[in-house]
């Protein structure tokens, strides 16, 4: 998995558990976080590495991490010179992880660290490839709007899709490649790749991280959901999506135009100056454009179909 | 050593059918002189299908290989997985629900030996409810008409293929219905023979009425793909020309009639001009796409060419 990236792990064989922590901004409490991680995972008694991916020039945090590394073993620090985003940080961290089980933990850990050990045990006990920790704020009942939307669109049954606290098997970590805002939907993307996902519930003060508490984050989140829906449902059959919209627009435009021509020819209503004619023609034009774009998408799919397989084989027995 | 024949069966929640299916196939291939492997592809079944398949004898005739997919991907993907992992010179696919009869397989092989690349089963006497048979008949007519490959029964899973040909054909989304049309890309010589068809014994059918929309939309796609591989720009230029024609016609109309051209009327002419330009650019894009993938698409032509003395004319 990591060998193809040319990365050599000196202590690879010894690591049982990897923890990936994306650091997205200056974290004054990073030393405390590390201590809490150690304390939470200690009851498992596993050899453990913690990979900090510092996403940007966060000098103070970086210095603090280097100081930590001098005092403790099992710390790996990766840095991006400029911010590449949480998805990139996570993906890089997962690729570097050498453990048979990989945990992802946010730099602002708001749950009891003991929950991490529970998460690892649940992953080992069950048959799932990923176990996520659903954060349940006090007094909260049921799922949020986002989760309900995702259930309608993608039949997701998760209570807290965006939970940044997850445990996964090495084969998942090796395969996931996230970009944009896909880290919010990691379990759903993994599911689409054929991995099984389970959820554990833990009490937490809140769900939204600092980045999502802003009111302005909602429109972009909705856009992300739409993109995800499109990606997961229509990746290999774009025309099912474009064709539906295109033919609908085309048919409506065609009917409207036909009605206008009928009015002109049979009822004698003057046509040349009616804005309705522009609208109906525009719909025909738009319909043809959407259909044509969808078909181009299908040609791309067809031309590359051999390389991008639809299916993942679990195992072969002979 | 690679076997002469690979039989590929996609299975999805067919726990009761696994054993009878295996027995039926084993009986059918026992008299054949060739070496046979059987690939059972478990398409993410939630029942005991895979466990039952593991209990089957693995080293007799046919030699068994089990391919387990990670989750349920659908029939096309399961078939594609089977085809990818099959090692035989000739491949046979059939359904896992025992509606096809494995005793038909030798007749398929005979057709392949005659020089056909693809042999398609035709369930002349289908044992299904009319609500499944009727839409499928209409769909087959439509598929034959649009793709130019008149197959009476595209939905029959019992088919035999020359392995190198089918392995070159991209199978994705729900393209298994269009295998003969796709195979025609590679100039396949296609034979069609009648097969026996049995009513379902265990389990239930996994199709619904939503297929109609999907088949119609997929037909547009397949027609475009077939046209694109031969003449990369024509499918868009044709539409573009048509739109340009309508625009010119409208413009000519009011030049001829010397009528006072209304604003809306001028708008229509300009819109059709804009659409023509759009389609032209898109046609160039699709030409680009074709040339980027030319080596890959060349494969179809290479497969289509055959030494004259070995080729049969169907």
Molecular structure report:
- The complex is a heterodimer of chains A (318) and B (314).
- Chain A is of the alpha/beta class and 318 residues long.
- Helix content of chain A is 47%, strand content 15%.
- Chain A has a seven-stranded mixed beta sheet with strand order 3-2-1-4-6-5-7, sandwiched between helices.
- In chain A, helix 1 (30-41) crosses helix 4 and helix 9 packs antiparallel against helix 10 (275-304).
- Residues 1-12 of chain A have low confidence and may be disordered.
- With 314 residues, chain B is of the alpha/beta class.
- Chain B has helices at 18-29, 49-54, 75-85, 105-113, 130-147, 163-168, 179-183, 211-230, 234-257, 263-292, 294-304, and strands spanning 5-11, 36-42, 63-69, 90-93, 118-122, 159-162, 190-194.
- The longest helix of chain B has 30 residues, at 263-292.
Shape of chain A: elongated
**Biggest beta sheet summary of chain A:** 7 strands, mixed
How many alpha or pi helices of chain B? Answer: 11
- Counting DSSP H or I runs of 4 or more residues, the number of helices of chain A is 10
* Ends distance of chain B: 32 Å
The H/E string of chain A reads EHEHEHEHEHEHHEHHHE
Largest interface: pair, residues per side: A-B, 49 and 61 residues
Mean pLDDT of chain A: 87
What's the main sheet of chain B like? 7 strands, mixed
Find the structural class of chain B using helix and strand composition.
alpha/beta
- Could you give the count of β-strands of chain B? 7
Q: If you compute it from the alpha carbons, what radius of gyration of chain A comes out, rounded to the nearest whole angstrom?
A: 25 Å
Report the mean per-residue pLDDT of chain B as an integer.
86
Strand content of chain A: 15-25%
What's the arrangement of secondary structure elements?
The complex is a heterodimer of chains A (318) and B (314).
Chain A: E1 17-23, H1 30-41, E2 48-55, H2 59-71, E3 75-80, H3 86-96, E4 101-104, H4 114-125, E5 130-136, H5 145-154, E6 166-169, H6 170-175, H7 186-192, E7 197-203, H8 217-234, H9 238-267, H10 275-304, E8 313-317
Parallel strand pairs in A: 1-2, 1-4, 2-3, 5-7
Antiparallel strand pairs in A: 4-6, 5-6
Chain B: E1 5-11, H1 18-29, E2 36-42, H2 49-54, E3 63-69, H3 75-85, E4 90-93, H4 105-113, E5 118-122, H5 130-147, E6 159-162, H6 163-168, H7 179-183, E7 190-194, H8 211-230, H9 234-257, H10 263-292, H11 294-304
Parallel strand pairs in B: 1-2, 1-4, 2-3, 5-7
Antiparallel strand pairs in B: 4-6, 5-6
